[in-house]
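Colleagues,

For the teaching module next term, I've prepared a clean inverse folding example: a structure given as tokens, and then the sequence designed for it. I'd like students to try predicting residues themselves before seeing the answer, so please don't circulate the second half yet.
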């Protein structure tokens, strides 16, 4: 079919152009209007001096068909040149007073198909050495079907070297298996260096996990190439926001009050949450904050409670420390143990809910006691008040008041129960009032007796 089409085209061209002698073949056929080609073995249409085995020319630009079997020209076996013609030792791009650019499609002995483009540099004829022409190779479809752009040795189905890929629509990767995806290398395949080192990869893993893997710092910018770095994950895994040199696992830097804000939106639209930041001016994040203060504060609008919690089967304590310098040496000031006991200045609370190793200063302390245990019972009629002599004997023997712990008991128990001791003190005070009242009654009786005796004495003196 193809041979019939070419023959029909050729015959039509001969018939239509016989009188104008637009076809030139070696030896010529002047009786048929076919001119003689001046180049042995070459056929020309529109030119009597075809520079390739078959050349079509309109007097300005040329389409050439031919073959080149040289190592310098990549063992090209056949080519079609558009204003690019292979001569004996070079390639020609005609100018003819116009631009001298050209292009070509060529196949080599290995079965690779390559595409060449030559940019114009003027209006005169332009000669390129075979090496120069081969450097204009732009795209290759190799014998295995792989396409290379910018490389003559594509290693993948589509291999683009030293250039960008642009699409105005989506870029799809279909049938991506585990471990496959998008990978970037720093190797130079044209220099024979292979893939080189991996720069980064975006791959699919087991259970459809998507892995973004960098082989150096991973940085995030905004506002295009003119923007600033916003976040970085360095080679050790440290994350920095506002800094390119994170010094810890998560570092946030900002010239004006850097902070971490965590918020939620309630049903009424109000926002609540927590702010963790460093104040750069007075009142930042807290009305009492001064520049340089580290602040942890709940945000108004939602739940305003600030909850600190820890769960640990070994200890689970919340510990508060301070330090008067920037050097290591924090001092633990307060501890909330996992049983709820609080220690200030100590971590040993024993059975105390609050243990303080130091002086407590307060304007008021209120001890909440059980009303039924309060010592109003001392004034009940059936209360058995010890005889004062019994009390004296008890003190003489035990060196402390009845129902009051001894110094040894207080030491063994690690102190006193303030509420319980206050009740016992009040009990002894009320008992003391009872003793005083009893003494007062006896004194009043003695006074009455004394008055009666004085009257009797006075009567005796007056007789």
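(Answer key — instructors only)
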């Amino acid at each position: 079919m193809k041979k019939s089409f070419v023959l029909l085209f050729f015959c039509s061209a001969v018939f239509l152009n016989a009188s104008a002698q637009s076809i030139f073949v070696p030896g010529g056929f002047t009786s048929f209007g076919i001119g003689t080609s001046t180049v042995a073995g070459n056929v020309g249409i529109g030119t009597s001096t075809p520079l390739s085995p078959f050349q079509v020319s309109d007097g300005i630009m040329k389409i050439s068909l031919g073959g080149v079997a040289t190592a310098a020209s990549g063992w090209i076996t056949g080519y079609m040149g558009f204003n690019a013609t292979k001569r004996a030792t070079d390639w020609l791009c005609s100018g003819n007073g116009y631009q001298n650019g050209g292009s070509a499609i060529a196949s080599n002995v290995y079965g690779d198909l390559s595409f060449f483009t030559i940019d114009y540099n003027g209006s005169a004829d332009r000669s390129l050495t075979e090496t120069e022409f081969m450097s204009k190779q732009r795209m290759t479809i190799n014998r295995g079907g792989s396409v290379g752009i910018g490389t003559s040795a594509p290693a993948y189905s589509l291999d683009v070297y030293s250039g960008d890929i642009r699409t105005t629509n989506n870029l799809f990767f279909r049938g991506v298996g585990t471990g496959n995806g998008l990978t970037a290398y720093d190797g130079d395949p044209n220099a024979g260096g292979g893939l080189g080192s991996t720069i980064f990869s975006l791959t699919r893993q087991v259970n459809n996990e998507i892995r973004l893997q960098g082989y150096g710092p991973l940085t995030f910018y905004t506002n295009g190439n003119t923007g600033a770095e916003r976040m970085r994950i360095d080679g050790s895994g440290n994350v920095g926001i506002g800094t390119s040199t994170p010094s810890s696992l998560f570092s946030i830097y900002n010239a004006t009050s850097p902070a971490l804000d965590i918020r939620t939106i309630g049903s009424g639209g109000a926002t609540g949450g927590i702010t963790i930041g460093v104040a750069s001016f007075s009142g930042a994040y807290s009305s009492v904050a001064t520049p340089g203060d580290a602040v942890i504060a709940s945000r108004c609008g939602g739940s305003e409670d600030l909850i600190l919690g820890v769960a640990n089967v070994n200890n689970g304590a919340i510990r508060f420390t301070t330090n008067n310098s920037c050097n290591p040496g924090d001092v633990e000031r307060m501890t909330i143990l996992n049983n709820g006991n609080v220690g200030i200045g100590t971590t040993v609370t024993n059975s105390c809910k609050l243990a303080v190793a130091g002086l407590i200063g307060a304007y008021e302390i209120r001890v909440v006691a059980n009303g039924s245990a309060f010592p109003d019972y001392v004034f009940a009629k059936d209360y058995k008040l010890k005889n004062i002599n019994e009390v004296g004997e008890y003190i003489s023997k035990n060196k402390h008041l009845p129902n009051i712990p001894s110094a040894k008991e207080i030491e063994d128990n690690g102190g006193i129960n303030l509420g319980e001791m206050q009740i016992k003190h009040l009990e002894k005070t009320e008992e003391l009032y009872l003793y005083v009242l009893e003494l007062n009654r006896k004194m009043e009786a003695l006074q009455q007796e004394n008055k009666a005796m004085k009257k009797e004495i006075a009567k005796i003196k007056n007789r």
